[in-house]
Amino acid sequence: MRGSLSPIIALLVGFIVLLGYLLPFPFLMEARQALLHWAMILAAVALIVGVMNLALAHWRKVATDQKGGIYSAVLLLSLLLTLGVVGYFGPTGSWSLWLFRYIQVPIESSLMAILTVALAYSAARMLRQRINMFSVLFLLTALVILLGTAPLFGIEVPGLHGPDGIREFLAQVPAVAGARGIILGVALGTIATGLRVLMGADRPYGR
Amino acid sequence: MDEIRCPMCGKSNPADLEACQFCRARLKPLVVSPDSGAQEPLRPGVPPVRQITSHLEPTLPDWLQSLRHGEAGQPEESAEPQSRAADEAPEQPGEPEDIHAERSPEEGGSTPATDTDFQEWLASLRQQEEVEAVLPVEEEIPPQEWEGEARPVTSGEGLDWLEEMRAEAGKVEMVDEAQEEEEAAADLPEEVEEEPDWLRRIRSRQQTERLTQGEPAEWLEEHAADEAQAPVEEGFRRLQLASEESFELVGEDQPVGAGAADTIPPFIEGELSMAGEPTDWLAGVALTEKGQAAPTEEAMPEEGSLAQVELPSWLEAMRPLEAPRRGRPQVEAGQVEASGPLSGLRGVLPFEPGLFQTKKPSTPEFNLRVSENQSARAQALEELIKSEGVTQPLPARPIVTSQNLLRIAIFLVLSASIIWSIWRSGSAAPRPEFSPDAFAVGSLINRLSNLAPVLLAVDYEPALSAEMEAASAAVLDHLLLKGASLAIVSTVPTGPTQAERLLSEVVRRGNHSPAVASQHTNLGYIPGGAGGLQAFAQSPRQVTPFNVHGVSAWEGGIMQSIDSLDDFSLVVVITENPQTARAWIEQVKPNMGNTPLIMVVSAQAEPLVRPYYQAYPPQVQGLLTGLQGGVSYERLNARPGPAYRYWDAFSLGLAVSALLIVFGGATNAILAFVPIPKRLRPQGKA
Fold this sequence. Notes:
The complex is a heterodimer of chains A (207) and B (686). Chain A has seven helices and no strands. In chain A, helix 2 (26-63) crosses helix 3. Helices cover 80% and strands 0% of the residues of chain A. Chain A has helices at residues 2-22, 26-63, 69-89, 94-129, 133-149, 166-172, 174-199. In chain B, helix 6 packs across helix 13 (279-290) and helix 18 runs parallel beside helix 25 (626-637). The longest helix of chain B is centred in the C-terminal third of the chain and has 32 residues, at 642-673. Chain B starts with a strand and ends in a 13-residue tail after the last helix. Chains A and B meet through helix 2, helix 4, helix 5 and helix 7 of A and helix 16, helix 19, helix 21, helix 24 and helix 26 of B.
């Protein structure tokens, strides 16, 4: 009974929301709206639970004196500090904005900067690890996009830059064609997955 | 449902039972003779089949043959229907209904036996020297059964011996009941079961104590007072006498025989049973009185056991030597209890040999003949298995390697180019011309009236804030210039703070008045991803009723006139995530009506968003991508912003990165074809 209750609830909710789109009955639309609101609340609660789980896991790491526990201690301290500041001054308070501007944004931007170096290094060593037609084609495309996005040392190369350049052609024809295929595939996959969930073939909510 | 009547107790049972559910007597015969193939029990609704049993006449006893042939004075005409009815009825010896059918004159049966015949037959019974068998134990009727159906014997004449036996049997019965109360509380009569458990236990304990102390039980006193009007001492003396006799019956290894039942006619058995007299004790008492030796225990087949046969040789070989013999233990005939209430009795507590293991099972010893080489290999294998569980320290890697040097070189070159570009602070690279995309976005914003409500979604992570702020700053600046009233939402937890930061930067850089900046309403975070966006698109007032300060967001200012998303004049989404862009286009756009949608996305999300922009009709009315789009829009508005300043460093960094990839790729491609000496290869590489 317990194992069959979850699929019944999931199927019922799924069909109500789906029929709310298709049939213009007021009660179906209201039910769909209520279920969506419940989903939002559950998602918010899940976010809080995730934060608590993160804090608990790092607290265990600190309490058991595991390796790297100092980083967990820093995380817990930062979490408590941020909670206190944002909770007291509000999410748009001056001190909250200060924390966001001078701590969070620089840290995450630095990670992106490291990614730039890592990508450049990987591209440079790609031909040493694997030399074939596709790796060479990938590398040439990346070079064309990089060189064609901005002027090369202040010089615009005809045929590379500008609206009629090869860079715009690559970005708007082959790339968009591939993106359309990806979008169509995602749409078909979403429909198939939704139907499987509605028919009970897939049970991502567990047993 | 078919029922079958028990031949012993006469109660109805389901037809599929093998034994009576009341007295446990067998309902169906074990062996069916070929002549009695049709002797099935009479079932309701099934007419009996006439059977010819004339060939069984010589096997009947003489007294029954005489009864059937009318020696009692009955005419032949009246006896014939009865014998025919007896032949037609299923043959169930000992069934009380059959006995009454023969004895009841109202039912047209034969004439019952007179008292004179009774006496003669019983006299012959008492003088009988030998008894061929004893009564079976499993056919013993429980006391509660015949006690409930007891009734006085009406024909008391000529039954003196029966009265004597009844008196003696009553003693045995009383002793048996006293023992049963101690041993099995579940077998108590119904009137006792109605009492509470605690009261029943107390009463049982008191009775036991009184018995052990030589005092009679309460029920014995009542029984003696009601029936015999005898003093208590006399009843207790009778109890002691009966106890001794009962012990003699059981303790002397002389079980109650089953052959005596064959000597008693069935109708007598039924009469005695209905009169409250058990037939088993009757046979037992008859045996003891006559001093007849009962069959020995060896001659009695053990209950439920099979005949012992010789095992085949292969099966005998498979039997373990140490395995104990299973089955019921053999009771030693000479084992006599030395202490306790059972002192002096023999064989009443059988010992179970298999309960306690007095000997530790022997473990087989293996003497393997291994050589030194095999022993060394086994030891090596054992050490190898042990070493698997021990963590091996990784070899220390050198700090300076070619890979680290290359990474550091790339970092230094990129940093130097960007720092040099910032230090130079000039416009070395030409700015791109404004694109048609930027022109479309500008046209949509220019159409806005003063204080037009605009929904702004800030849905990017802080890591990409540099690119997204540069791309969207010009759009926000344009909106503030038009005097739009902004309502800010976000599907990213850091979005509300990100929006405040972005707006403050735009106000500061654009020299806007603080009053303009304070016109916006921050509706906060929308959880639930695509589902949350769908709910927000359908009822924005219910999903985000308050702003980030906890104040109602829809009661003041321009927000009073907003009931749905199509009441907004424009919706601007700033995101770097193509999935978030898809969610806004697919979940929110259908509920926006004619309100235009502008997407400001990063360069990485452009390929996935552009199909919606280039569709017909377009689902995205304006698209601005990356830093290049921001620079283009700033040039369109002729208000340089962060994108304009970032452009030099951005273009130089891209060019340096491309050159590093070209040179690095060419070098590594050459090295891939050139064989490297083994001493120069890094560790772990083939």
